[in-house]
Amino acid sequence: MTDIFAKHQGLREAYEGLTAASPRNPFEVVIERPISASVGIIEGRETLLFGTNNYLGLSQSKKAIEAAVETAETMGVGTTGSRIANGTFGLHRKLEAKLAEFFRRKHCMVFSTGYQANLGTISALVNKDDVLLLDADSHASIYDGAKLSGAQVIRFRHNDPVDLEKRLARLKDHTGAKLIIAEGIYSMTGNVAPLDKFVDIKTRHGAYLMADEAHSFGVLGAHGRGVAEMQDCEDGIDFVVGTFSKSLGTVGGYCVTNHDGVDLMRLCSRPYMFTASLPPEIIAATMAALEDMQGRPELRTKLQENAARLHAGLQKVGLKTGEHVSPVVAVTLETVDQAVGFWNALLENGVYVNLSLPPATPDNRPLLRCSVMAAHSPEEIDRAVAVFGEVARHFGL
Amino acid sequence: MTDSVAGISGMIIEKLLANPKVPRDIDGNSKIVEDLAFDSLAVMNFVMEIEDELDVSVPLDKLADIRTINDLAGCLHTLKVAHA
Predict the structure, then answer these.
(1) What are the residue boundaries of the Aminotransferase class I/classII large domain, all occurrences included (chain A) (predicted)?
(2) Does B45 touch chain A (CB under 8 A)?
């Protein structure tokens, strides 16, 4: 009998090599419980959380918690069905209307996760006759959506409008639809996309443009509508996709657009149709978090201040970070061993960040990915920077 | 030199040898993943460099069938002829 797991031998060797050299398994960190948005108990110790995506701290929003409790008590804890069968409650429609209004778009579809929002939107929009042009550093959900769609996939160099235009020019005789996909903020590096330049290009070449604002929703733009709002190019973005599991602190995803054709996506997007819809208490909490976010624009100001403080602090202690000041601040290291040692030392000294390893990182180099929250105090940021500095000195960096 | 599969194969080998980590004894029959120890991301990034030389774009699904340097050269040649 063929060993069904034989194909994972290479992965097993890499995994065992990594975990053997590390005092703890980086893939099995347990946050025993959060104490607040910025502090959790890990290995029995109070630990500063600098590796979440809880940018506005709304996972702990009082209003969202109350809404979830009240809704669970009155409606139960699940829908037990698909959006196209028994899984659409009044609340789902209400959230879609609220999001469409927030983004100033005609239509909104809510998905059960952010991953499924990309899978469901991309696979419904294009098929084998079409071409997808993806930023080379796109999230796995975009690549997976592309695969599910069956469309031809062409990568363009990360954040490079000239390269994108070159590739579109090569497609001038292609008769299918062309869809460009870029992210607002890139999750691993914190880089911000030049969406305004992509809008110019897509207009000249008769293509559509989809922006994944997962990490920029609630974070950038005067109202929190993301990079497109910040760069004043929202009208040129055909489809905006995002998630509730970052700035809104819950779970779920969405796609908003002005294209009327999107209504039929509800009948052909398999990741939308063939899964259970979000439970009512999650929808209620998400709506409350959205209202909380809209009512407290100062959270975004605080987040930007905190991002600048962490970015400058890490640079000051001599670490290599990306050039963009955004809530994702990634410290680039040279070797996996160095990154694993550094990450363990940070955790032992009370700071949790994400250890990101190749091939999930650009340039084949490991990253210590930090994310900042509006909920971090200046003292917490300074403490994290000080620990980074001590560990860097210990490793001779 | 990039008008034939052999010419493109030679150009690919020249580019690969510019990377000191690549074994010195590669030829057109060398397997990209096994012999060159490239992972899937490294293959995609390397193909991007070649694309610019030939002014073609290789759709990702085409990469799934490519094992050797000559396979890649053949794929690029086909795309270049179709694009011309």
Answers:
(1) 47-387
(2) yes
A14 contacts in chain B (CB < 8 Å) = none
Assess contact for A163 and A157: CB atoms under 8 A: yes
The structure's pTM equals 0.94
Q: Between 3.90.1150.10, 3.70.10.10, 3.40.50.1000, 3.40.50.2300, what CATH number should domain A15-49+297-394 receive?
A: 3.90.1150.10
pLDDT at A230: 97
Average pLDDT, chain B: 89
Q: Which fold has domain B5-83?
A: 1.10.1200
Report the gap between the CA of B10 and the closest CA in chain A (Å). Answer: 24
- Cβ <8 Å between A155 and B44: yes
> For B41, which of A154, A167, A359 is closest by C-beta distance?
A359
How far lies A329's CA from each of A25, A52, A247, A309, B16, in Å? 23, 12, 16, 11, 33
pLDDT tens for residues A288-309? 999 999 999 999 999 999 999 9
Chain A residues within 8 Å of chain B (Cβ atoms): 131, 136, 146, 152-155, 157, 166-167, 170-171, 358-359, 364
